[in-house]
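User: structure tokens for this one?
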Amino acid sequence: MHPPTLATHALENFNTSLYFWWLAMLRCSKDYWWICRQGGRCEDARLVRIWEMFGDIHTAGSVLPWWQTRGTNLFDSPQVEMEFVTRLIGQLVLVTDKNLAKAMPDMLCLAIPKQMTSQDLLLIIAQAWDLARVRGEHYNKGAPFKLSSVANKSAALVISAYRLSLLQVAVDHAVRGDEMYQWGSYEMGLHLRVSPKSKPRNRDTLTSARKKQANIRTIYSQHKKAAADLIANVEIGIFPCKDPVPHVRRWTDRQQRELDHAVQSGAWQNAAWLQREHAFMLPQSSFWQDGGYRLTAREQAIGMIDDFSQLRMPFLEPKRKRKSKANSHLDE
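Assistant:
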């Protein structure tokens, strides 16, 4: 187990990557939840393989222990998958293959000044790690699971699709009398800002207002389908991807009946699901300590969903901008 400071830093790095959203979308999969409940008993070999590799992500406690025990082996740690610049922060130097007496697979070798204190060393390595995630080139050929190559727009859709999935659960469990109880695709799309240019304005004509509402409903439906497609692909180990997934029978008749009953009885995505999801994926969040418990049920739901938007997302920045930021860190 890593020391607390390094463990926290590892989680911070994970939270800024698309790997974080890989796990988040997998936790939105009803079939993956069910295979965890079934102990791996499933007729779809593709889903069984994912369960064997990712494990029971619904009993892991929080994202940090899962990442430490499973995630780094699935995706490779940032240090292994990144090509560091030769000279790092604080006089650390990367030892290349040609300078090693023998090859050391899956290891990152550093030359460390003797006079450096342990405290400074931990801090500098953490900074170098974070820098490498931003400016390094990904070399994850040996990783069991690799991110699909996507444009920034497609990556942004992942976050929107996930937040949409959370909001849909919150709306489904809203109580009568709550404003959210009446929300449909327009209201949810408006809150999620799926189409900022379609936000209604006081000066809009009736025709213009209706056109904007229709546009928001349409884009919301597109994002909802994207969420379903992303989940279908993540169930077979491909992410982020929206390609059609060939249907394969997964459950025996008895398993399907039991699954249907579990869903109908509220075992899957019940009223407490959103809070559990928030606690699992964002264990470092200060939402509740900052007064979240004093909010109304609707405000709590909105606050938890919006909390996911506060994460740093360097993968959405143009590569040129990322490199510029990395260089500015080196100059400091």
